[in-house]
Amino acid sequence: MPKKYVIANFKMNKVDKEVKTYIEQLLPKVEDVASQVVLAVPSVSIKTAVKEAKGSGVNIASQNINENGFGAFTGEVNAEMVSSVGASAVIIGHSERRSYFNETDAIVNKKIQKALKAGLMCVFCFGESVYDKKNNLTESALTTQITGALNNIYGNELGHIVFAYEPVWAIGTGVVATNAVIEKTLKLIRKIICNLYDEKVANEVSIVYGGSVNENNIKDIAKIANLNGVLVGGASLDPVKFSMIAEAFGKNQKTTAKK
Ligand code: PGA
């Protein structure tokens, strides 16, 4: 069974002190959730977040990396750098990076390769635009994005990639995709991966949904068969709301000592 992930994406929010306080407040609330909780914090706060989350089982991610190794790229950070301060994962190909920073599928592919080489888990984001949706182009848009991102990636590396389906029209808009749309798209994504690799690989990958997930709609979203978690932006900024979202994917049974 694919592992479940509940991932927070802070985007460009929270100064270092706020990241620390957030984690202090979140940890007791998520200690018995069954999914892997991941916090993608601003890169300048990775070190603080790692220190604060130590021993808790919560993983810290970067929101981006540069696709290059070391060199003259002023202002950028690479996979080895975020790994060296304790990040264990990285978000790659978020729609905001694709649209504001012109990230192409080829760049996304390079970033995935660099991240895997540095031992980082990739949260690979993709999704159709409103144009694609209106013009029945979802299947071809997703096929292009997934195929492009996975160029030269082997099937046995897919266990280190979480597929984050984020329809662009649902991100930060308050318009959440219906369960029917998510279910249909999950099948499509597994079909695309199956065509690139095989059925076993396709059935084992974790696929999460992102786009206007919040503490109110999560109960419904969590019911979707074959969905392996969520990637949350806006609602993740509040530790109470985010912990409610994490809880929706189940809690670990507490084992009590026999009398
Ligand atoms: P949102 O963002 O939850 O605010 O829609 C999701 C994302 O951008 O990953």
Question: How do the strands and helices of this protein lay out in sequence?
Answer:
Blueprint: E1 5-9, H1 16-30, E2 36-40, H2 46-53, E3 59-62, H3 79-84, E4 89-92, H4 95-100, H5 105-117, E5 121-126, H6 130-134, H7 138-149, E6 161-165, H8 179-196, H9 199-204, E7 206-210, H10 218-221, E8 229-232, H11 239-247
Parallel strand pairs: 1-2, 1-8, 2-3, 3-4, 4-5, 5-6, 6-7, 7-8
Bound molecules: 2-phosphoglycolic acid.
Summarize the structure in words.
By secondary structure, the chain is of the alpha/beta class. 39% of the residues lie in helices and 15% in strands. It is built from 11 helices and 8 strands. It has helices at residues 16-30, 46-53, 79-84, 95-100, 105-117, 130-134, 138-149, 179-196, 199-204, 218-221, 239-247; strands at 5-9, 36-40, 59-62, 89-92, 121-126, 161-165, 206-210, 229-232. Strands 1-2-3-4-5-6-7-8 form an 8-stranded parallel β-barrel, surrounded by 5 helices. Helix 1 (16-30) packs parallel to helix 11 and helix 5 (105-117) packs across helix 7 (138-149). The chain is globular and about 50 Å long. Residues 9, 166, 171-172, 210-213, 231-235 line the site of 2-phosphoglycolic acid.
What attributes characterize this protein structure?
binds 2-phosphoglycolic acid; 259 residues; alpha/beta; eight-stranded parallel barrel; single chain; 11 helices
Extended strand count? 8
Low-confidence stretches: none
Overall mean pLDDT stands at 96
Shape: globular
Biggest β-sheet: strands ordered side by side in the sheet: 1-2-3-4-5-6-7-8
> How large is the radius of gyration?
18 Å
Number of helices: 11
The residue fraction in helices comes out at: 25-40%
Describe the sheet with the most strands: 8 strands, parallel, barrel
- Return the string of H and E elements: EHEHEHEHHEHHEHHEHEH
Distance between the termini: 33 Å
